[in-house]
Amino acid sequence: MKKVILFILVTSITQTFAQTARRLDSLFQVLDTSRTFNGNVLVAENKHVIYNRSVGYADLNTKKKHTINSAFQIGSVSKTITALAILQLVEQHKIRLDDQLKNYFKEIPYPDLTVYHLLTHTSGLPDKEELFFPLIDKNAGLKVDNQDIIPALQNYNKSLAFTPGSQWRYNNIGYALLALLVEKVSGQPFNDYIMKHIFFAAGMKNSYLLGNRATDSNRVTGYLIRHHYLGDMESIENNTKVRRWSYNLRALYGPTNVISTTGDLMKFAQALDGGKLLSKALLDKAWTACNLNDGTAAAPGGEFGPSSYGLGWYLPTTNLGKMAMHTGREPGFFTFFWHDISRHKTIILLDNAESNGFGKACKETLNAVYGQTYFKPEQKGKQSLFLPYIKLLVKEGPDAAASFYNRLKTDTLRYFTDERELNELGLELLADHHETAALEALKLGTLLYPQSWNTYDSYGKALLQAGRKVDAIEMYRKSVVMFPGNLPGKAILTQLTNEK
User: Fold this and answer.
1) Which of 78, 208, 256, 391 lies at a C-alpha separation of 20 to 30 Å from 314?
2) CATH number given to 383-498
3) In 3-state terms, what secondary structure has residue 69?
């Protein structure tokens, strides 16, 4: 009888996996045909690979296609690895989460900062752009690495953006400092530490820190769409718009710069679940929402819905059980890493072309895996309305573009509209000095999405660049009233009002 029950159970699970795989195959066939995803996807549950597919090219110039062994820059998903390294040292009683950073780095100018503040993005530190872009603008050949951070903070001569622990604001510099802390406490270079204590321990043979492997035939090239409204692509090495990230800041490690594969990231998740990398007590702590000084949970939100933040992980608010996830973005690369803690299910998508359809691919993958509408599939099988609108705006002007948009805006069966896409296209026009077109596009954003603080912030930027200072002040004021956490917008508004 027990054998019969076991047979029925195994058969049921196998059929469920097969149904999921068919849904995913249907989805990625569409994404492949439409060229809205370029990379690898893997879905696994309880050590069983449910779906594993490669789409598109690892190298466009040589037409080399992706394989399941393609190795990608995983961007900020690297933070989960840095956080794990810190927690391993906590487990060994070499670090305490409430340790002040000055105990390890006496030169750091902010005595109240703790390890916990860095892990939870509640430090108030300036981020890498604010800290280093002024230096890079003076010296285009400058290459920044982690050793430059503390001297730069000493010369920063500004207070923290807020009292540590009082607010949540995503911060890369904090994770670069955590990598330095791992080196200080362990006595090993960061790459050596994570190779031995994380990658080797988890069986991740294809993972390493950028710059620490002479050759890797599986490593893919990162691409950017030069102009989304034209659809042309180029390697990140040739794109001047992202040079400060792809060249000047490329040597920073801790917040980014791990190279990995979908298969290795699956092993990472399985090693966490299996207790190979960290005790259950500390892992549970990492996957528990951090609280601010006032006792409320940090609530960063984001493209994938409401969430809180733990120790190196976003914690999505869902009706599906306990989840942990992180995304990553570097010039030319997108990463999505989702771990269903209660079901031991892992979903990984890696893309090396910053594909327009990446967010859609992630959401639709979740829908397919869970067999329900976790995210509203509003874009499935539809075309973007904003992309052809922007093309007309550039080629034929505002009247032709407006006529096109008004004629098709109610055709929701064939077209979708997306706030983020319109905003990014508008800012791209602005960067390409299409000021009139940018103003039209970003103004449309404020009209279509009046509850979004970001639309006013972006329109304010365009107005300011066009010399319309009074109008820009009005937009920035709306933005910061709607979202007081818009600190860059507040700084610009203060500067503009003081100039009056």
Assistant:
1) 208
2) 1.25.40.10
3) coil
